[in-house]
Amino acid sequence: MYESIKQSFAACFGRPARFLFSAPGRTELGGNHTDHQLGRVLAGAVSVDTLAAVAPNGERLIRIQSEGYPLCTVSLDELEIRPQEFGSTLSLIRGVAARITQLGHRVHGFDAYVTSRVLPGSGLSSSAAFEVLLGTIINSLDTCGLSAIEIAQIGQYAENVFFGKPCGLMDQMASSVGGIVTIDFADASRPVVEPLDFDFASCGHALCIVNSGADHADLTDEYAAIPREMKAVCAVFGKEHLREVDEDAFYARLREVRAAAGDRAALRAMHFFEDNRRVALQVEALKAKDFPRFLDLVNESGRSSWLYLQNVVPTGSTRHQELALSLALAARLLQGRGACRVHGGGFAGTIQAFVPLDLLDAFRSGMEAVLGEGSCQVLSIRPEGGILLEEAEA
To answer: Of the residues 53, 110, 140, 179, which has the maximum number of CB atoms within 10 A of its CB?
Structure first.
């Protein structure tokens, strides 16, 4: 099954691979943009992954050849932040190695050939899968004893500090832990992770991720504006995160909030309060096997993201509103059944849909007729997070 990546490693590095590692993509099931405000999320690892064939190299270098990209080489003696690398694969490699070193572990050099079915722009968080993959490799090769939660935190650190993207922790946590998890980030240093046992297929629905065709390029400020505006709301109350702001106090001082932070920031805060509460209700529904209630909550979350969070249409965009069109088309094809919502960061990328199995063929063909062949992926939840799949004898 894995012969192709092993052959690619041997062709690239001139010797056989010793190890095979895997880290999954993730799907956000609840809590849109709540994680960076110390809120709750519901997420799951999915059945597409990023793979690496690996062998130690005996040098102070990490060399990674990702399929279709130039070779990346990072010296383990040069792990300082490099602003010129912001937004690059090199920055993630350097950031993960730097953080593990800061935590007191000695990182040794290795070579890796990486291939991925978690495509960039797929909405399944290819960056988090790559970060978790790197952390899992180093943790295994250097016997660091890091937990899945710690590997997720290391990935977030690399993305925030070295890559330059102010992301939350949901993506890395879902990829690292595996299965369906609900996470409460009230204590950022010690998030509470609770696994949930639930099978969507048993409820007669397929989990679909639909690529709208919109590109994430040039949207960095759109994403950064969400936590920035939420922080402006928090400043009115002398707090750092919306989880620390009393909701009743927010509404009591709404006029002041509008004056200080603006209306969009106020609406985004309203979304946080509602979606954060909604995650707990989604968890209750899944535990009670009340799938219709869960679907209602998914739809509510989608409406809140569109109306309040406003992460469906990029600011000022008129001709290109791919995500909005995809949501409208999905709702039409679902015929009042199932559920659909914006997925992940928003503005571009993907939507999520829970599709009744009897509508699945018509839904997929209807979406792909407009958005292109292969735009609708049917996924399942993967129980494992980042793992060592195979080890050859030395």
So the answer is: 53
- For residues 391 and 20, what is the distance between their CA atoms, to the nearest angstrom? 7
Q: Which residue type does 380 have?
A: S
Place of tokens 């997929």: 364
3-state helix, strand, coil in the chain (%, to 5): 45, 20, 35
CA distances from 126 to 48, 56, 344 (A): 10, 24, 12
Average pLDDT rounded to a whole number, residues 28-36 = 93
Task: Look up residue 347 and give its two tokens.
Answer: 């503005």
Q: How confident is the model at residue 47 (pLDDT cuts 50, 70, 90)?
A: confident
Q: How many whole angstroms separate alpha carbon 197 and alpha carbon 115?
A: 29
CB 154 within 8 A of CB 146: yes
Collect all residues with Cβ–Cβ distance below 8 Å to 333 and sequence separation of at least 6.
359, 362, 363, 366, 367
84-117 per-position pLDDT tens digit? 999 899 999 999 999 999 999 999 999 999 998 8
Q: What values do phi and psi take at 111, rounded to 5?
A: -110, 145
The alpha-helical segments, DSSP class H, found in 104-201 are 126-141, 148-157, 170-177
Per-residue burial over 289-319, b = 16 or more CB atoms within 10 Å of its CB, e = otherwise: eebeebbebbbbbbebbbebbbbbbbeeeee
CB 353, CB 327: distance < 8 Å: no
Phi and psi for 351 in degrees, rounded to 5?
A: -115, 165
Strand, helix or coil at 75? strand
pTM assigned to the model: 0.85
Between CA 5 and CA 11 the distance in angstroms is 10
Structure tokens belonging to residue 187: 């204590």
Q: What's the one-letter identity of residue 153? A: Q
Question: Dihedrals φ, ψ of 218, to 5°?
Answer: 65, 20
**pLDDT tens, 244-300?**
999 999 999 999 999 999 999 999 999 999 999 999 999 999 999 999 999 999 999
CA dist 68 to 48, 72, 143, 216, Å?
18, 12, 30, 19
Structure tokens at 72: 């990346």
List the structure tokens of 74: 């990072």
Contact assessment for residue 334 and residue 355, using Cβ atoms and an 8 Å cutoff: yes
Residue 151: closest CA among 168, 166, 129, 136: 136
**Cβ-Cβ contacts under 8 Å for 189 (sequence gap 6 or more):** none
Q: CA–CA separation, 312 vs 54, rounded Å?
A: 39
Q: Are 393 and 24 in contact (CB under 8 A)?
A: no
